[in-house]
Every structure is written in structure tokens, then in C-alpha cells.
From TrEMBL:
SUPFAM superfamilies associated with the record: P-loop containing nucleoside triphosphate hydrolases
Protein name: ABC transporter domain-containing protein
Keywords for this protein: ATP-binding, Cytoplasm, Hydrolase, Nucleotide-binding, Protein biosynthesis, Repeat, RNA-binding, rRNA-binding, Translation regulation, tRNA-binding
Keyword Hydrolase: yes
CDD domains: ABCF_EF-3
An individual GO BP term: negative regulation of translational elongation
Family: Belongs to the ABC transporter superfamily. ABCF family. Translational throttle EttA subfamily.
Domain ABC transporter: start-end pairs: 48-301, 367-589
UniProt GO molecular function: ATP binding; ATP hydrolysis activity; rRNA binding; tRNA binding
Transmembrane segments: none
Domain of life: Eukaryota
InterPro entries per UniProt: AAA+_ATPase, ABC_tran_Xtn, ABC_transporter-like_ATP-bd, ABC_transporter-like_CS, EttA, P-loop_NTPase
Length: 589
């Protein structure tokens, strides 16, 4: 089989295409190897291999057991699974960062492995540019040695043949790394990823800015195996598009943990799924994975009816992929149908689906923004910077508004002005008399690390009131995929995605009719994302969501507020793809 067809081989059940394009089910046993016998029994195309790897966590629970995987040179693999299923742990083992595990890890001699963790470390004694250049030592050394060899050729006693041979080897390696114009490559990547100014002090950077610096450094380093844990977090849509293009042409092996479904569709050639301790490998991108996963769930006869229904719905949408400006009317009709059918929050929760508590009935007037202006002092230059000027729009009832734009363009500032936490320099915001605002911030500082999940969300209330409905608090918490023993875990022991789900469950309890969510999709697994999408669609109020997740924005949004930079903000009737299409045509207003 070809290199692309053999990109990933797993010990668990998977489909492997055989010569001639025919599919055959295979149980591919990984070859017997050990780290001390580098390469023994391992096919030459493999760059990394795990054999019978297992991890046991607190309480003796096995996160996964006897997992064997082989990664081929040039494979592009997306990693999916529920929060807490072990995705980051598995990646740390591949990276060589985690050494406490059962089984064996083997990396081919000479193969360089690069890893982007969720919270990367930078050298606090160096500025942004110096931290990035730290990852380019090989490129800098190659260029310096090439210059030295070239100079040595001019010496009267030079061994010309030896120098020519070395120069040819250096040239091949420099060509391979594409680092002849290193300064240009660095500046291009920094601009594309919206990295802070090169002389900025890394100690004052936000978490998102630090991640962009670390990602830029790692991509420019160009390791043979590139391991990325949530690489699209804190990236705007244009930066994600650049990253997709970069990885599509990347010659090394790429393993990405991500919830960004468009990213997976555009980059992944394989999907590796972790599901309740098992690993499953599928050839294809995210949309193709939806089909294959649905088939697997049906074959196992353990299908969760709700998850399968959501997957089928998303697959149907993905195939049609047609946006419509009639989203508002269609959404209103769906809400009316739900109401007519006697929709109850308790039944939704019993089915394991997220439910957003309904607030008081919303009137026709929701939010009206008139002639807003906000100017901030630039932290780097010290000069005034206009975030937006003469900004006016009106949010209609039942709207789901996506807020998009580059980092630092003013999205969160707009939220703070609408909620009254910050005042504009000019203009004003009018709220309808029936409006009850609820805000889910990007920060999770509201969580108490010492409390259990149940204590943090329930506030010791056994039941939660949902309008005329009343449900058990534990059932409500379970609807956020926080079930059973998970509810007794301390918040401090949770993964990033699990903490985000706790944060959402707690902050959505307010019973508001207008909810504002700042980057709610960060670190969420795709099943929780689907459930959140359904909850927002069925919420009988108004939602305003800051997000860079294009798939999420396309699935739910009826309107877009786009911060396009240089103080320009556009209010658009339609979803994200429609907005992008109109923007390219130059008619978005």
C-alpha cells in the first residue's frame, strides 16, 4: 500500500486499504521492538512506535491499556476523544515528556520530535524574538557553517574537494529546512500567527500570546514529528487558515489534538479516536470519520441513540454544507415546534444533553448599540489605538450572534461595554426592559480548585429550577458529560476541557434570557461541542458567542459581528461562511 494509505496503523480494529484500492478489515499487530533495539523489526517508514502502552491513574483506573500505534513519515493525524480520555497523556508519551507508563516507546534514530503543550514554557530572560530564535539553532548553525565553508574555499591551502563535499551536504540540509532566508521566514510566521512584537517581554504576555510564540518557534524548528495539543486555541480565523496551509505542505509527521472540525477536515489524512480506553484509527478527515464512526457504533450495538442522532445530523449538514440567510426564521420555527411538542428540560437532561435554563420571556427589544467608540493605549507603542468607532447595530430576538476577529481587536471589550463592566468613550448601549444578561467569561478564575465538581456547580442544592420544570442537580451536571465518579473529583485535578465544562455548567445556571459566551469552545471535545450547539439552538433567548471555531459558527449562527481590524466592525446577517463569501466579494456591510 502507498505511504498515504499506510499513514497510521493501530493495534486495534481499523480499516486498512490494500493494494488495488480494495478495503479489508485488519487487526494489525505491532512488530515486536524495544527501545534498546532501535529499529529492530520496525518497518523503515515508521518514525515512532508505541507498543502495549498503558496508563493507570488515581484509584487504579486504567486510562488506556495495551495500546500499540505506529506513525509513518508524512502522516497527518487528528486525535479525537472525550475530555479526560487521555489524549494529552498519550501525546506526552509520544513526545517523551511522560515516562511513567507501561509498555514501550520507540523513536527512530535521528528523528527529532517537537511538542506544543497546552501551557508551553518560555525563557523569561529573553524577549519574544529571542525565544523564537532559540528553536532555530540548527538552521542558524547550518547557515553559519555554510558561510565558513564558502570562506575557507578562498584559502590557498584549502582542501577543495572536501569543502565542496561538505558544502553540498550543507546545501541539501538547508534546502530541506527551507532556511536560506531565515529572517524572512521568521517574520512571515510571526505575522501570520499574530505573535506579539519581537521585543515584547514574555513575562507580561497572556496565555494565548505565549502559546502563539511557542507555536511559531516550534513550526519554524520543523521537527520530523510535530505534536500539537490544541494548536488552534487563541488563533483567529486567518491565522488558522495559514496554519492549515503550512501543515498541508509539511513534510514531517503531524499529530494534532484539536476540536476544530474545519481544521481536521482541511489537514487530517487520518483520525485517531480514544473512546473509553480503546483506540480506533480511521483513514480520512473529520467528515469521513463521522461516517466511519457511525458505522462502528452501529456494529458494536452499544450505540448511544442521542450521540448517533447528533452525528447523523452533523453529517447531513456537512454533506450539504449550505448556509442560508433564512437562519433566523428557521431557528424561530424550530423553537416554536419544540414549544408545541411539550419540550421539557428534564427530558433533555435525562437523555444526557446540555440544557440552558430558560430565563424570563424576552420582549421585541433586546440590545441596541449606537455610535460606540472605544480607544485604548497600545501596550507596546504607548500610542492611542482605536478598537471601534461609530459602531451601531441591533440584536433581534432569538438571534445567535457570532463575534469574530483577530486577537486584541475589541471583541471582549464590546462584551464588557454591553454588560456595563466598561464604559465607551462615545455612544451608548440600550437594553430592552425584559433583558436579563448572563456572561460566561474566558477566565475560569471563578472555580474553586479545592471543591469537588458537584460542590462547585450545585452549591449544595439537590434540585435545580428550570422555569416550571425541576430536575436533579446531578443529572444536570451529567448532561455536561460529567458523570458518576467524575462529579466527586476535585476541580484542581481536572483536564483543561473538563474544567471548561464545569465552568459552563456553573455559569449557565443563572436563568438569563440573553447569554454572552467568550470562547466557550476552547478545549471541549466534539461530543460536548455538538451538545452545546444543540443547546444554544434550542435556547429560547439570545446568544452572543465570541469564537474562532468556524464549524461551530456555521452550525448555529444567524448573525456575525466581525472585527476586521483598524477599527472596522461589520454586522452581518448570516453565518460565518456566508460572511466570508460576501467579504471576498466586497459587499459585506
Amino acid at each position: 500500500m502507498s505511504l498515504l494509505m499506510r499513514s497510521l496503523v493501530a493495534r486495534r480494529r481499523l480499516y486498512v486499504p490494500q493494494t488495488g484500492g480494495q478495503w479489508a478489515r485488519a487487526f494489525a499487530a505491532a512488530p515486536s521492538t524495544s527501545t534498546s533495539n532501535a529499529g529492530g523489526g520496525v518497518p523503515g517508514d515508521f518514525v515512532c512506535h508505541l507498543r502495549d502502552v498503558g496508563v493507570t491513574i488515581a484509584g487504579g483506573k486504567k486510562l488506556f491499556d495495551r495500546v500499540s500505534l505506529g506513525f509513518l513519515r508524512g502522516a497527518k493525524i487528528g486525535v479525537l476523544g472525550a475530555n479526560g480520555s487521555g489524549k494529552s497523556t498519550l501525546m506526552k508519551i509520544v513526545a517523551g515528556v511522560r515516562t511513567e507508563f507501561d509498555g514501550e516507546r520507540w523513536v527512530k534514530d535521528g528523528v527529532r520530535v517537537g511538542y506544543l503543550p497546552q501551557e508551553p514554557q518560555l525563557d523569561p530572560s529573553k524577549n519574544v524574538f529571542e525565544n523564537i530564535m532559540d528553536g532555530l539553532k540548527e538552521s542558524q548553525d547550518l547557515l553559519q557553517r555554510f558561510d565558513d565553508v564558502s570562506m575557507a574555499m578562498g584559502e590557498p591551502d584549502a582542501d577543495f574537494d572536501a569543502l565542496l563535499a561538505e558544502q553540498a551536504e550543507l546545501q541539501d540540509r538547508i534546502d530541506q529546512l527551507n532556511c536560506w532566508d531565515l529572517t524572512y521566514e521568521v517574520e512571515k510566521a510571526m505575522a501570520a500567527l499574530r505573535v506579539p512584537p519581537k521585543h515584547a517581554d514574555v513575562e507580561v504576555l497572556s496565555g494565548g500570546e505565549r502559546r502563539r510564540v511557542a507555536l511559531c518557534r516550534l513550526l519554524l524548528e520543523k521537527p520530523d514529528v510535530l505534536l500539537l495539543d490544541e494548536p488552534t486555541n487563541h488563533l483567529d480565523a486567518e491565522s488558522v487558515a495559514w496554519l492549515e496551509e503550512f501543515l498541508q505542505s509539511y513534510k514531517g509527521t503531524v499529530l494534532s489534538i484539536t476540536h476544530d472540525r474545519y481544521f481536521l477536515d482541511n489537514v487530517a489524512g487520518w483520525v485517531l479516536e480514544l473512546d473509553r480506553g480503546e483506540t480506533y484509527a480511521y483513514e480520512g478527515n473529520y467528515t469521513q470519520w463521522l461516517t466511519q464512526r457511525r458505522n462502528r457504533l452501529n456494529m458494536q450495538r452499544k450505540t448511544d441513540a442521542i450521540r448517533a442522532k447528533q452525528i447523523a445530523s452533523e453529517l447531513e449538514w456537512s454533506r450539504s454544507h449550505q448556509g442560508s440567510k433564512k437562519g433566523s426564521k428557521a431557528r424561530l420555527k424550530k423553537l416554536e415546534e419544540l414549544e408545541a411538542s411539550g419540550f421539557r428540560a428534564s427530558s433533555r437532561v435525562e437523555e444526557g444533553q446540555i440544557v440552558i435554563p430558560q430565563g424570563p420571556r424576552l420582549g421585541n427589544k433586546v440590545i441596541k448599540v449606537q455610535n460606540l467608540k472605544r480607544v485604548l493605549q497600545d501596550e507596546v507603542t504607548g500610542k492611542p489605538r482605536v478598537l471601534f468607532d461609530n459602531l451601531s447595530f441591533e440584536i433581534p430576538p432569538h438571534a445567535i450572534v457570532g463575534i469574530v476577529g483577530g486577537n486584541g481587536t475589541g471583541k471582549t471589550t464590546l462584551f464588557r461595554i454591553i454588560t456595563g463592566q466598561e464604559q465607551p468613550d462615545e455612544g451608548h448601549v440600550e437594553l430592552g426592559k425584559t433583558v436579563s444578561l448572563g456572561m460566561v467569561s474566558q477566565s475560569r478564575a471563578e472555580l474553586s480548585s479545592r471543591k469537588s465538581v458537584y460542590e462547585e456547580i450545585s452549591d449544595d442544592n439537590e434540585f435545580i429550577e428550570f422555569g416550571d420544570d425541576r430536575i436533579n442537580t446531578r443529572a444536570y451536571i451529567a448532561s455536561f458529560n460529567l458523570r458518576g465518579p467524575m462529579q466527586e473529583k476535585k476541580v484542581q485535578s481536572l483536564s483543561g476541557g473538563e474544567r471548561n465544562r464545569v465552568h459552563l455548567a456553573k455559569m449557565l445556571l443563572g436563568g438569563h434570557n440573553v447569554i454572552m459566551l467568550d470562547e466557550p469552545t476552547n478545549d471541549l471535545d466534539v461530543d460536548t461541542l455538538r451538545s452545546l450547539e444543540a443547546a444554544l439552538t434550542e435556547f429560547n433567548g439570545v446568544s452572543m458567542v465570541i469564537s474562532h471555531d468556524r464549524w461551530f459558527l456555521d452550525r448555529i449562527c444567524t448573525h456575525i459581528i466581525a472585527f476586521e481590524g483598524d477599527g472596522k466592525v461589520v454586522f452581518f446577517d448570516g453565518n460565518y461562511t456566508e460572511y466570508e463569501r460576501e467579504k471576498k466579494r466586497g459587499v459585506a456591510e
